[in-house]
Amino acid sequence: MAARLLLRSGLRAVTTCQAVRAPALSRSMAAGGIPTDEEQATGLEKVIMNAMKEGKDPFNMMKPKSYAGSKNDPHLVPSITNKRVVGCICEEDNTSIVWFWLHEGESQRCPSCGAHYKLVPHNLSH
Amino acid sequence: MAHQAHAYHMVDPSPWPLTGAVAALLMTSGLAIWMHFHTMTLMSLGLLLLLLTMYQWWRDIIREGTFQGHHTPPVQKGLRYGMILFITSEVFFFLGFFWAFYHSSLAPTPELGGCWPPTGITTLNPFEVPLLNTAVLLASGVTVTWAHHSIMEGQRKQAIQSLTLTILLGFYFTALQAMEYYEAPFTIADGVYGSTFFVATGFHGLHVIIGSTFLAVCLLRQAQYHFTSDHHFGFEAAAWYWHFVDVVWLFLYISIYWWGS
């Protein structure tokens, strides 16, 4: 169920469809008497639900987006402070991960494969 | 609110693991004391502490998930893995008793008369109450699925009705089985037949009672609007457990009641 939820929300985010919430309406408290997550979710679950509706993933639950890793299209790494550890799997199926600190400012390159990484700082919404 | 940058749940400190461990200690030592000194005090104390622990621990989980919103998608995924692993461990538990049954019944020793059922044992007719029990549990599997679909489709009344029906069928099974136990022409002390029969079906019956209790808790929660049409993992866990109980019965019925008769 959670997987379906993730997939469904992810799909929605990707296609950015503004579909009518008709199915939800027919399942609400008013309709059948069982609340929807829309009506009743609370706390962190609600924060995540709302973020996913906008296509955002503030808690890094999904796989990171794919970038070319070149100078013009560096891997964008979100961070809530001014540095974050990055683990680069240079080639697919590599068993050793190259770890390094990525600092705010100019993009850095992986010491092994040279892929470009750029830190994107942002604040927690709460 | 949460000042964390991840979607997981870092649980607040809780006394229930400790009280649960103490309960386990008191129950086990209490069992030994009961066997040697004929007093049930220690064991009863342990049982009481166990019941209190279960009530308070699971109440806290409901508070954390339903009322505080800590059960985010990754947390729910973890709970799913947990329930599946637990049920798998229970499968292995029952596998042991099936092993014992087949060990003794596939090559019956001379002491039993070299045959199965052993000489002197009048088995239960598999086409009487045991067959009814099979129908009852299969029907309860249908009603619990009906309840799940009702929840997903937002139909409160149907959800409550089908869940209630499932629990009633569970009680019916338990009552029928209790009557069978009372009326059976053999006891647990009747050789390896009695041992394998009553230990395997007895543990199954205990699991039916546990499953019915879990479903009853879900009924209370559904009545109090805890479940949403998308997020109702407590109910799903209870339904998985109930299907597991049903499948174990089917194996028991085929192996012990039918083949073994």
Describe this structure in words.
Chain A has 126 residues and is α+β, with helices and mostly antiparallel strands. Chain A has 4 helices and 5 strands; from the N terminus they run H-H-H-H-E-E-E-E-E. Chain A has a domain at 63-125: Cytochrome C Oxidase, Chain F. Chain A has helices at residues 2-15, 22-25, 37-40, 43-53, and strands spanning 75-79, 83-88, 98-103, 108-109, 116-121. In chain A, strands 1-5-4 form a 3-stranded mixed beta sheet, with no helix packed on it. The longest helix of chain A is centred in the first third of the chain and has 14 residues, at 2-15. Mean pLDDT of chain A is 84; it is low at 13-24. Chain B has 261 residues and is mainly α. Chain B has helices at residues 16-37, 41-67, 73-106, 129-152, 156-183, 191-223, 233-259. Chain B folds into 2 domains: 1-69, Orthogonal Bundle (Helix Hairpins); 71-256, Four Helix Bundle (Hemerythrin (Met), subunit A). Classes of the chains: A alpha+beta (126), B mainly alpha (261). Chain A: The modification N6-acetyllysine is found at residues 65, 83, 118.
Write the layout of secondary structure elements.
The complex is a heterodimer of chains A (126) and B (261).
Chain A: H1 2-15, H2 22-25, H3 37-40, H4 43-53, E1 75-79, E2 83-88, E3 98-103, E4 108-109, E5 116-121
Parallel strand pairs in A: 1-5
Antiparallel strand pairs in A: 2-3, 4-5
Chain B: H1 16-37, H2 41-67, H3 73-106, H4 129-152, H5 156-183, H6 191-223, H7 233-259
Helix pairs in contact in B: 1-2, 3-6, 3-7, 4-5, 4-7, 5-6, 6-7
Form type of chain A: elongated
Reported by name, the CATH topology of the largest domain in chain B is Four Helix Bundle (Hemerythrin (Met), subunit A)
Judged by helices, strands and strand pairing, the structural class of chain A is: alpha+beta
| Unreliable runs of chain A | 13-24
The counted number of beta strands of chain A is 5
Helical content class of chain B = over 70%
Strand proportion of chain B: under 5%
Biggest sheet of chain B: strands, sense, closure? none
Number of helices of chain A: 4
Oligomer class: heterodimer
- Overall average pLDDT of chain B: 97
CATH class of one domain in chain A: Mainly Beta
- SSE order of chain B: HHHHHHH
Spatial strand sequence of the major β-sheet of chain A: 1-5-4
Rg calculated over all Cα atoms of chain B: 21 Å
- Reported by name, the CATH topology of one domain in chain A is Cytochrome C Oxidase, Chain F
Round the Cα radius of gyration of chain A to an integer and report it: 19 Å
CATH architecture label name of the largest domain in chain B? Up-down Bundle
The fraction of residues in strands of chain A falls at 15-25%
CATH homologous superfamily caption of the largest domain in chain B: Cytochrome c oxidase, subunit III, four-helix bundle
Kindly report how far apart the N and C termini of chain B lie.
Answer: 62 Å
Main location (chain B): mitochondrion
Family (chain B): Belongs to the cytochrome c oxidase subunit 3 family.
Membrane topology (chain B): Multi-pass membrane protein
Catalytic activity (chain B): 4 Fe(II)-[cytochrome c] + O2 + 8 H(+)(in) = 4 Fe(III)-[cytochrome c] + 2 H2O + 4 H(+)(out)
